[in-house]
Design brief:
Layout (H helix, E strand, L loop, with lengths): L12 H4 L7 H13 L1 H9 L13 E4 L8 E4 L7 H14 L8
Antiparallel strand pairs: 1-2
Helix pairs in contact: 2-3
GO molecular function: acetate-CoA ligase activity
Protein name: Acetyl-coenzyme A synthetase N-terminal domain-containing protein
InterPro entries: ACAS_N, ANL_N_sf
């Protein structure tokens, strides 16, 4: 009997065609980049979004070592966005205003 970790569920073909990762290999490459080069990884993703104001400080700053002071994570210091614009307006402006945005 297979353990849950051994089960593989492939997506429907219509979903796979429009996915961000076309293969497990591509997923693993992205995952490795996210660990080894987090600023580059998240910077690439951030390019897909609208920002009212750009980053003015460090893109990523963190401390996970309590012996070095306060534990913290800071992302994109100084940047400001409008989440409604990124979630809705950008799609309306792209001509998709008459399509369902979210199924409940």
């Amino acid at each position: 009997m297979a353990s849950n970790g051994d089960l593989i569920f492939n997506p429907a073909q219509r979903v796979a065609k429009v996915s961000h990762c076309s293969s497990m290999e591509q997923y693993k490459q992205l995952y490795e980049k996210s660990l080894k080069e987090p600023e580059a990884f998240w910077g690439d993703i951030a390019k897909n979004f609208h920002f009212e104001e750009d980053v003015t400080g460090k893109f990523l700053d963190y401390n996970f070592d309590a012996s070095k002071g306060e534990i913290y994570i800071r992302w994109m210091e100084g940047a400001k966005t409008n989440i409604c614009y990124n979630c809705l307006d950008v799609h309306v402006l792209a001509g998709k205003g008459d399509q369902v945005a979210f199924y409940w």
